[in-house]
Amino acid sequence: MSDITITRLDASSTDFFRQLHDLLAFDKTDNLEIHQRVLAIIADVRSNGDKAVIDYTNRFDHRSVTQISELELSPEILKSAWNGLPTEQAQALQTAADRIRAYAEHQKIESWQYTEADGTVLGQKITPLDRVGLYVPGGKAAYPSSVLMNAIPAKVAGVGELIMVVPAPHGETNQLVLAAASLVGVDRVFTMGGAQAVAALAYGTETLRPVAKIVGPGNIYVATAKKLVFGQVGIDMIAGPSEILIICDGKTNPDWIAMDMFSQAEHDENAQAILISTDASYLDAVEQSINKLLPTMERAEIIRASLTTRGAFIKVNHLEIAAVVANIIAPEHLELSVEDPEALCEEIHHAGAIFMGRYTAEALGDYCAGPNHVLPTSSTARFSSPLGVYDFQKRSSLINCSQAGADTLGKTASILARGESLTAHARSAEYRIKTD
Amino acid sequence: MSDITITRLDASSTDFFRQLHDLLAFDKTDNLEIHQRVLAIIADVRSNGDKAVIDYTNRFDHRSVTQISELELSPEILKSAWNGLPTEQAQALQTAADRIRAYAEHQKIESWQYTEADGTVLGQKITPLDRVGLYVPGGKAAYPSSVLMNAIPAKVAGVGELIMVVPAPHGETNQLVLAAASLVGVDRVFTMGGAQAVAALAYGTETLRPVAKIVGPGNIYVATAKKLVFGQVGIDMIAGPSEILIICDGKTNPDWIAMDMFSQAEHDENAQAILISTDASYLDAVEQSINKLLPTMERAEIIRASLTTRGAFIKVNHLEIAAVVANIIAPEHLELSVEDPEALCEEIHHAGAIFMGRYTAEALGDYCAGPNHVLPTSSTARFSSPLGVYDFQKRSSLINCSQAGADTLGKTASILARGESLTAHARSAEYRIKTD
C-alpha cells in the first residue's frame, strides 16, 4: 500500500481563498432521471395508496406481501430484539439514549405571553407535531445511533405518534436497529423504504395516516422524495457528504488527529476531513501518522479515497486566521484541539457542532455525548442548526385585544392599511374603534 | 351587482370530511416553463455576475444603468423618504415598528450550557446570521408593513447586514417602502428584483456579497428562484394564497365578521375565507352583511371572486367540533370570535396566528399588534411557525469533554461504533480512554 500525500494549502498565499473555494466545491446537481422516477412513484402512491406501496416494496425489496399489515412489526418483535442484545450493547445504547434525552430536554421551547397596560394579551403558543415519520436505511449500513438521534428529540417534544420505516431487503431486518426503536419508544414500525415509503408517510394511504414531518437519512431516491414532498410535510435537511474541520495547535498526539480524520473519511469517499494548524511540522507528523495507521484500518480504501481527493492540510500563521477559515467553511463538525478551546470558540460563528479540547473526539458526539449527530452539512451551518427538539415543535402567535387595545391598535392599523390601499383591512380594524 | 351565495357545509353530514378536503385543495403544481426560465437566469447571474444582473434589470424593469452602484439607494434617499412622510403615517409606522420589536424581543433564543459531575461541558451556542437578503415587491403593490415584519426580527436577532432589494420599474420607487426601510435600519437597498435579484443575493457578484438567507414575498419568478437557491442559502416559507378561518358563536356583529372575511378576500382571488358557526341563522346574517357591504368595497370584484370560488360557511353542532375542523385546516389566520376564547384556544393545535375575542380583528395583527404577519399557509402550520427572530439565529452544539468524561464516553462510543462497523470512530474514541 503506497503512502498518501494530503493536499496542502497555505492561508498566507495570495491565491488561498480561491483554492479554498475549489477544495470545498461539491457537485450537488440533481439527477433528472432519478427525479422523474421518484415523481412517478409519488404520483402512483397518491393514486393507488396501499396497492402501490405493496407493489414497489415487493419489487424493490424482494418481498411477497399482499397487505400493508404484513409489513408492520409488532411491539413484541421490537421488544424481543431489545431483549436479545448482548448486555454490553444494551447498556451502551441505554447510556447513549439517556444522555441524548438529557441534552434534548434543555432544548424544549415553552409557550409565553405578556399582558399590556390596556389588558391586551400577546404571546406564543408551543405545540408538538401530531405525527412524525422516521426514515431508517436498511440493508448492510445499519445505524441504531441514527434511530436514537432522530427519535429522542421527537419524543421529548411530545410528538403524538412516531412512525418508523425501514426497508427489509428479502425480509431481513437488523436487530440493533429494532432494539433501538424499542428502547426509544417508536410507536409503529413498517418494513418499507425508498421513495414509496416517503410518499406513503407524506400523503397517507388507506392504512397509513399522513405525518406532518419526515426525518432521517436515506439514499438518493429517499433524499429526492423528501425534497419533492416538502411543503406537503416538513422535512429535516437534505444532508450532503459528512465533513470535519480540525484546528490543532500542534500539541495533540498526531495519531489521535489522524484517527479523527479517518473517522470522518470512513463514512464515504466524498466525506471531507480538513486539518488546520499553525505548525507546519505538525502537519508532517499527522501525515506520517496517517500513513502509519492507514494499513491497519478496516475501511482503508474508503479512507484513502476520501483523504486523497477531498482531504486537506491548511497552514495558518495564527489561530485567529484558523477561526476566519472555519467561519468560511462553516463545517458540520469542528474540533478545536488546542490549549484554550473556550477562547478560540468565541471566534467561531458558523459550525454544526464544536468539539472542544484534545479529549473531545468527534466520535464521542456521534454516539453518546448528548448533542445530536444530525448536523448541517455543506456550509449550511451559516443559516441552519443541528436537529433538535425545536424541530418537532411549532409556534402559533396569540393576540387577544382588550376593547381599549383594539381601539388604539385599530387607529394605527387603519392608517397603515389605507396606505397600502387595503380598505377592507382598514374597515375591519375601524369597526373595533370605540364610537362613543 | 347580484348577491353572492357562500358555499355551505355541515360538519354533521356523512360526506363532510371529503367536502372539506375538496374545499381546501389548491393546485400548487410548479410551472415548468417558469422553472426553466428561472434556472437560466440563475445560471447567467452565477456566470456573469454584475453584468447579468444589470442586463436583466434594464430589460425587465425598463432601466438603463451601466453599473450596479447606480441601483443602490443611499441612506440619504431613504432618510428623505422617511422625512417626507405625512406625520400620521410616520407615527403609525413608528408605533407598528415599536410593537413588532417589543414582541420580537421575547423570541430571542439564548445560548446555554451545563457542566456534568466529571467536568464535561455540554451546551448550545446561538449566533445570528451574518447577512440576510430581504425581497420587497415593487410596482403597484407596495407593502411597507412587509418591510417591518421581515426586517425587524432580523435586526433583533443581530444580523450583521440586512440587504433589501426592491424592483423599480421605470426607475419608480415607493416612498412608504423606502421610509419603512429607513425606519428599521436596513443596511443597503438596491432597486433590483425578480429571479436575478434572488440569484445575486444567493451567490453574490463582483459587487454584492452573498447572503446566508433570503426572506420576503414576491411573484412566481421570485418564489421559484427562492426554491431553486434553497440549500445555497436559507429561505423563509414559500407562501400559498392567504387564508382566514373564523370561528364564531353567533354573537359578534355580523358586519364585523363579514368585513373580516373581506379583509382576507381582498388580497387576491385565490385567498380563502371560511366561517364556522354553531348557529345556522348567524351564517344567514353574515351572508346578508356580505351582500350589504360588498358594493361599498374598493376591491369588490376581487372579494367577490375569492368568496364565491373559495369561501365557505361551515355549520357545526358544538364549538369542540369547530376546533377539530380548525386543526384539520391548520389555518394561517384563526379568529376565535367567541365568548371564552381562552377555553377554545386550548383545543387549537395547528394555526399560524390565533386572534382571540371579538375585538381582535385579524387586520390588527397584519399591521401593528406585534406578532409577525409572515405566517405558514396551506396547512403548513401543522409543522411550521410564524417568521420570527429564531429564523435569523442558529445553533451550534458545544461539547467539551474532561479527561474523565472522555474516558467514560469513549467506552460507550467504542461499543456503539463497533456495532455499526465504524472502526475508525471506535479507535478515535478509544484513544481518549485512560490507559493507566
UniProtKB/TrEMBL annotation, chains A, B:
The keyword Zinc applies. Keywords: Amino-acid biosynthesis, Histidine biosynthesis, Metal-binding, NAD, Oxidoreductase, Zinc. It comes from the Bacteria. InterPro entries: Ald_DH/histidinol_DH, Histidinol_DH_CS, Histidinol_DH_monofunct, Hstdl_DH. CDD domains: Histidinol_dh. NAD(+) binds at residues 135, 196, 219. GO terms for molecular function: histidinol dehydrogenase activity; NAD binding; zinc ion binding. The keyword Zinc applies. SUPFAM superfamilies: ALDH-like. The active site is at 332 (proton acceptor), 333 (proton acceptor). Substrate binds at residues 242, 264, 267, 333, 366, 420, 425. GO terms for biological process: L-histidine biosynthetic process. PROSITE patterns: HISOL_DEHYDROGENASE. Catalyzes the sequential NAD-dependent oxidations of L-histidinol to L-histidinaldehyde and then to L-histidine. PANTHER family: HISTIDINE BIOSYNTHESIS TRIFUNCTIONAL PROTEIN, HISTIDINOL DEHYDROGENASE HDH. This is Histidinol dehydrogenase. It comes from Methylobacter tundripaludum (strain ATCC BAA-1195 / DSM 17260 / SV96).
